[in-house]
Amino acid sequence: MRLAKYLAHAGVASRRAAEDIVRAGRVSVAGETVTDPARDVDSDSAVAVDGEPLRAPREHVVYAVHKPAGVVSTARDTHGRPTVVELAPKGAGRLYPVGRLDADTTGLILLTNDGELAHRLTHPSFEVPKTYRAKVRGRPTDDDIRRLREGVELDDGPTARARVRRVGAELEIVIHEGRKRQVRRMLEAVGHPAIELRRIAFGPLHLGNLAPGAARRLRKEEVERLSGRSAPPPRRGPPRRAPRR
């Protein structure tokens, strides 16, 4: 198995983040530092991260967290700021965030030790929708909303089409990309920067009434819906009668 994938399976980080960890020289195999994420390893390879032998997670878990403003979406912060992983319950084990929210953005973020699930939720090819509510400066016109829906030009290229609607005094924006500060930059591009921004849904999972700073472990069926493994909903209405012979 590729080293980056092995780290993801062991709950160290998502697959893409694991590649960065390897390239940074933080991983050793049989005592030798390795910087190639494609290195083949197995359970007998004596893999260690930051000098600590890697152990398989007890079980895969996923937590929903309501991130407050001022908390950063990383597992560690060199500036000493509070991190989102510190909001997990004590004894939850080694977890890492799925996707990111900038420090000023609040709302739903996930913590897990399931690298494959994190990969599915964040890789652009899966187009998992993220839903935001924004309080913006000024009042966007219908043309502003059309531009957001059709895609706006940013410094790293045009955005994909988005779903946008007014909800009271706020805008609800659904995107499936994951660029840095994307929603804020989209709103700035149409002249209505965000005053407040929060994520209210990640794929099929909604923030609901989870209090700021709180975390809750997802139920098995919620994880299955996130991973796309859930069964289709039962058919509604009366069963069809068998045809007469």
Which helices and strands, and how do they pair?
Blueprint: H1 3-9, H2 15-23, E1 27-29, E2 32-34, E3 47-49, E4 52-53, E5 62-67, E6 96-98, E7 106-112, H3 115-122, E8 130-136, H4 142-150, E9 153-154, E10 157-158, E11 163-167, E12 170-175, H5 182-189, E13 194-202, E14 205-206, E15 215-217, H6 220-227
Parallel strand pairs: 7-13
Antiparallel strand pairs: 1-2, 1-3, 3-4, 5-7, 5-15, 6-7, 8-12, 8-13, 9-10, 11-12, 13-14
Helix pairs in contact: 1-2
Structure characterization notes:
The protein has helices at 3-9, 15-23, 115-122, 142-150, 182-189, 220-227; strands at 27-29, 32-34, 47-49, 52-53, 62-67, 96-98, 106-112, 130-136, 153-154, 157-158, 163-167, 170-175, 194-202, 205-206, 215-217. The model is unreliable at 230-245 (pLDDT under 50). The chain is 20% helix and 26% strand. The protein is of the alpha+beta class. The protein has three domains: 3-53, RNA-binding S4 domain (Structural Genomics Hypothetical 15.5 Kd Protein In mrcA-pckA Intergenic Region, Chain A, Roll), CATH 3.10.290.10; 62-123 and 204-227, Alpha-Beta Plaits (2-Layer Sandwich); 129-202, Alpha-Beta Plaits, CATH 3.30.70. It starts with a helix and ends in an 18-residue tail after the last helix. The longest helix has 9 residues, at 15-23.
